[in-house]
Amino acid sequence: MIVSLLLGALVSLVCGLDRVAILQIMISRPIVAAPLVALILGEPQIGLQIGVMVELLWLARLPVGAAVPPDDTQVAIASSVLAIILGRTLNASGIELLLLCLLVAIPLGKVGQYFDRYARQYNVRLIKQVDLALDRGSLLQAELQHLRGLTSFSLAAIGTYAIVLVGGLLIIPFLWPLLQQPLSYSSAWVQLALPLVGIAVILGTINVSRAITLFCASFCMSFLLMWLV
Amino acid sequence: MALVLARIDNRLIHGQVLESWVPFVRADCIVVANDEIAGNQLQKLMMQASVPSRIRVEIGTVAEAIALVNSTQLDHRRVLLLFGTTSDAVRAYQGGLIYNRLNLGNLQANKGKARLSCTLFLDPADLDRLELLDQAGVKITARCIPADGERPWRKLIPASRRRGK
Amino acid sequence: MAISRRTRLHIWLRLLLLQASWNFERLQGIGFFYSLLPGLRKLYKKEKLLDVSRKYVGYFNTHVYLAPMVAGAVLKLEEEQAAVVGDQTLEIDNFKEMVAAPYAAIGDALFWGGLRPLAAGVALFFAVKGILWAPLIFILIYNIVPTWFRTVFFVRGYRQGMQSVEFIQQHRLPDWAIHTKETAVVILGGLSAFMVFSQLTQHQLPSWLGMLTLIPMVFLGLVARKGLSTLLLVLITVISIFFIGLFWADVVSLISF
């Protein structure tokens, strides 16, 4: 279990840094990060299902300028790890457990946004260091300050992961016996609803005139096609 | 003409305005009132090139913006008004460009400016100007993008200054 | 003195770390300095180098994928500046400042607003089917255009200097962003239909029921437009489905009774 947690932390670090600090090749998106961590832990399908549910939820929140979107990366990674670990320890399986992990992780993941904001605020200190280094005539020191920024972003990523994970490990074992049965009546529908809510939010906020009309047309058309074929 | 948003943003037209505010307030015309940018032809062109062609963009001095907004040219348009600085906003208001609400977006950090929020840095003169607008009945709030909460500007003022009042 | 290919590659690699010290005061400022430093080192020495560096650590922010183009152009300008005796520092500063916000706006619309939902929509078709390659498909589809912008435009920026803005001005990229977003909406429509349809067939329910999904979705979309947070919408949806699921059997038995 410890090994799984650490492997999860490693993925959370790499994918978390991809969000803002480095690369931006989108390994931070839930649809990539969740299956990745789940693959490493040996149950890729769990990650894929969680990825589908989380990917679209905050896709409409763009990282424009200084706006900080919610940390869906860590929510996806942590809930995948939770689902896999708890699946083994509670000897449970099925979509109900995934949903429970995800529904616990989503509100806890809110801290990610605060941590991210805090990291960016903390990095303001580096400016002074850079200015001082330049005054002293040390370019190497100035360069290093830039890389120091990676520490705060790493801590924000790992911190979010840890909080969601610890919170989940404390809460879910209690909720599971209570909610397993009630959740089973609606689990398939909740699983379907989450990506649809995400799509609805995208439609509401995307900068396209008549997005909803376009969406309805496409929906009906595809639906008819599948029906007839 | 409907004035759907008046905003102070030192970056003027950028991602937050185009991607978040334009769909949120459903604006179809952006008016930029800033003397500095109005004098720079190339910068004006660049800024216009960053806006989709279905949105009308007017970039001019504060005086030009006042005249434009009060003319009939923008009838049936939903106008998003952008100022670069607090002084632009005050000058426009005093010049007859009346807005009831003012949104504070980004004001860049400079020496001698106090931090109000993550993206807002104001000096005492800025605060005085906002005070002036507030007295005139303008509802001033800080909100970077629509998804952020709206906060009244007075709540953000550093305590030291509030006590001085 | 021209900047060697090797140094330019070094700068390009450093641009991948552009936002490592992103902060609310100077945004990408320090990162831009960090990326350009290998080139500046070749052009200036000692005191002059420090002076130029001080200029670059100031406020700067543009879109990550378009920053290489700005860096390339600035590099060219600095190269010209170092070669002549005259002073055009002001011009370089103005250029940097002039392109930053418009490039940011264009990049945000094209990549975050358009390409990301498009690529996600396509990849999710595969993911919903349970195909494990879906993440890879997403990364491949998404990264083609950004990589092209990062590499080709870095080279072009360096080659053309200030003229590099002409490409952006001429090609109406913001309109392309709108087209990308429209495509994304169409794909998401297909994706929703696909998900709903497969669910209904799995549960052996009549498929026309699926058309009803449009009602809550349009409603949620309109509510989201009003500014309600996703977290709230998710909670409301999940809780209502949960309770419907809980009492559905009772309702059905009541009706049939």
Question: In words, what does this structure look like?
Answer:
The complex is a heterotrimer of chains A (229), B (165) and C (257). Chain A is mostly helical and 229 residues long. Chain A has one domain (2-228). Helix content of chain A is 80%, strand content 0%. Chain A has nine helices and no strands. Chain A has helices spanning 2-19, 30-40, 44-55, 72-89, 95-108, 110-122, 124-136, 139-205, 211-228. The model of chain A has no long low-confidence stretch (mean pLDDT 91). With 165 residues, chain B is α/β, with parallel strands linked by helices. Chain B is 36% helix and 26% strand. The radius of gyration of chain B is 15 Å and the shape is globular. Chain C has one domain. Chain C is elongated and about 95 Å long. Classes of the chains: A mainly alpha (229), B alpha/beta (165), C mainly alpha (257). Chains A and C meet through α2, α3, α5, α6 and α7 of A and α2, α3, α5, α6 and α8 of C.
What is the compact description of this entry?
The complex is a heterotrimer of chains A (229), B (165) and C (257). Chain A has 229 residues and is mostly helical. Chain A has helices at residues 2-19, 30-40, 44-55, 72-89, 95-108, 110-122, 124-136, 139-205, 211-228.
Label this structure with key terms.
heterotrimer; B: 165 residues; alpha/beta; Fructose Permease; 7-stranded mixed sheet; two-stranded antiparallel sheet; C: 257 residues; mainly alpha; 10 helices; 76% helix; 0% strand; elongated
> What is the number of beta strands of chain B?
9
Number of helices of chain B: 7
Number of separate structural domains of chain B: 1
- Stretches of chain C where pLDDT falls below 50 for ≥5 residues? none
Query: What is the strand content of chain C?
Result: under 5%
- Describe the largest sheet of chain C: none
